[in-house]
Amino acid sequence: MKTIGFDMGMGALKLWAKDGGLQLVSQVANNGRAHLADGIVGLKSRKRPILVAGDFGSFYVGPAAHEHGRPVENLDFDRLTGAPEMRVLLYAALAQYQDEHGPFDEPLSLMVGLPLQMMTGESAKDYQKGVKGWLMGVHYFDVDGISHQIEIENVRQTSQPVGALFDYVLDEKLKVIADPREEVGVISVGFNTVELLVVKDGGAVERFTRGNTLGVRRLLELINRDGLYSLGELDGSLRAGGLRSELKNALPIWSREVNGEIEKVWGVSHKRFAKVLIVGGGALLLKEMLTLQFGHKAWLPGDPVLSIARGLWKLSTMKR
Questions:
Q1: CB atoms within 10 A of CB 146
Q2: Please, are residues 208 and 265 in contact by the beta-carbon 8 Å criterion?
Q3: Domain for residue 167, yes or no?
Q4: Which residues on adjacent β-strands are paired with residue 96?
Q5: Do residues 115 and 261 share a domain?
Q6: How many other C-beta atoms lie within 10 A of the C-beta of residue 191?
Q7: Does 168 map to a domain?
Q8: Centroid of chain to Cα 166
């Protein structure tokens, strides 16, 4: 089987396998099928997003999807248990991965990274059963008119911060490069959540482990107080280097909120940690604040966005 690390990000879906990784912006829109004709004089022609279709419906996926169809923005955790928008994101990403690295010639084995909230509490087993239920089996779908058939034969699940931990502990050849017995903190700043995990002697320290919905979406909500844009549209502008004037006011507020949550959960106990791993797309926005707070103990991977997916792949390959 081909092993793939699968980070179910709300802002971008990330995959990592032996050949490398990719991220696909998690924008999904219903395909209304009533499109402007191409070549209208006086208007610039724009390339449409990826179109994914099947018995689940027809959807635009990826960058600018919200400009071509009715936005689908469901940030509830139930989305990850097989909602159509989650399916089409995975299908588009798997098709893109094959375009870049060659077709899959064997079934897939996925190591899936879930938000901490889906791995804890009374609903944890139901969430995990739901995720595994829709992923397992043979999937049929079309991407931009090309038919695909992909079999997922094995699904294992863990929390997203665990992926970051294994990205830190293991190198690309799966050689241990950090002491796994150390007490290490992980801060994962995603689109929907900020997650804190502390690991000591290979196990989680529960009182220092917490997840909340203070991710990048909170920053965009501060900017979008009048609700003039979809979160996907604002996320696209942010990724393109826009929103600079808006960030001047909103970023310090969001930064203080995230810092306050970290202090509430960890207090001064982070001073005893050997390292504090900082990953996720939001880590790029909070890099200055978090590295200042944790000093030489702060560790940011070369690509903090793909770190979780890469670590999930390392974990899965090591355990196979």
A1: 9
A2: yes
A3: no
A4: none
A5: no
A6: 22
A7: no
A8: 16
Residue type, 212: N
pLDDT digits (tens, 9 = 90+) for 47-96: 778 999 999 999 999 988 888 888 898 888 899 999 999 999 999 999 99
Least confidently predicted of 141-145, 169-173, 217-221: 169-173
**Span 98-122, pLDDT tens digits:** 999 999 999 999 999 999 889 888 8
Residue 317 lies in a domain: no
Whether residues 113 and 245 fall in one domain: no
Closest among 105, 111, 107, 97 to 151, alpha carbons compared: 107
Residue-number span of the structural domain to which 31 is assigned: 2-160
Domain count of the fold of the chain: 2
91 in the same domain as 48: yes
Residue 103 CA to its chain's centroid (Å)? 23
Cα gap 110→316, rounded to integer Å: 8
Q: Which ranges of the chain does DSSP label H, i.e. alpha helix? A: 84-101, 124-135, 160-169, 216-223, 231-239, 244-266, 281-294, 307-319
Q: pLDDT for 210-219, tens place per residue?
A: 999 999 999 9
216 and 193 Cβ atoms separated by less than 8 Å: no
CA angle 164–167–171, rounded 5-degree value: 170
Mean pLDDT of 273-293: 94
Q: Which helix (H) or strand (E) holds 7?
A: strand 2-7
